[in-house]
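Q: Please design a sequence for this.
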């Protein structure tokens, strides 16, 4: 499955950036890749990474193995491994991360716990990642508006 966000739609034809859904997969599998590394892969290879699931341990291992294979093929070294995100804040329905609360109150009504609990994992992940990103802060507000439109 490849979760596509409307606010990211401009990148999907060329996969010129690492989609948020792939960034989630990288976080849960404990792999780091730079944009330069991502772009070194062929479009078809990037598309495979977009579509590979990571729901089960077996799927996470397959995702990691494929990314490790690509890293060895293109860079002569295995994938850069880090610890997978432990206790991800986007999985906690009872608490809105501070970064999301603070970012949302800058231009929009503050995210409510009802909204947070009603959004799916991919939406909560996007808000968590975008709320701490220093690049393109407008992406956070575009995502927030998109998620509010979908649920409203």
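A: Design:
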């Amino acid at each position: 499955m490849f979760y596509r966000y409307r606010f990211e739609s401009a990148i999907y034809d060329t996969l010129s950036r690492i989609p948020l859904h792939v960034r989630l997969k990288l976080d849960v599998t404990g792999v780091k890749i730079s944009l330069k590394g991502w772009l070194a892969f062929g479009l078809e290879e990037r598309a495979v990474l977009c579509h590979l699931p990571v729901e089960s341990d077996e799927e996470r291992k397959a995702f990691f193995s494929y990314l490790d294979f690509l890293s060895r093929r293109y860079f002569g070294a295995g994938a850069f491994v880090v610890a997978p995100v432990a206790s991800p804040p986007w999985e906690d329905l009872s608490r809105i991360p501070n970064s999301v609360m603070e970012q949302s109150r800058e231009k929009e009504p503050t995210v409510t716990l009802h909204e947070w609990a009603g959004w799916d994992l991919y939406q909560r992940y996007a808000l968590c990642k975008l709320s701490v990103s220093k690049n393109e802060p407008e992406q956070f507000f575009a995502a927030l508006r998109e998620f509010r439109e979908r649920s409203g």
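Q: Thanks. Anything notable?
A: The first helix runs from residue 20 to 29. The chain has two domains: 6-81, 89-151.
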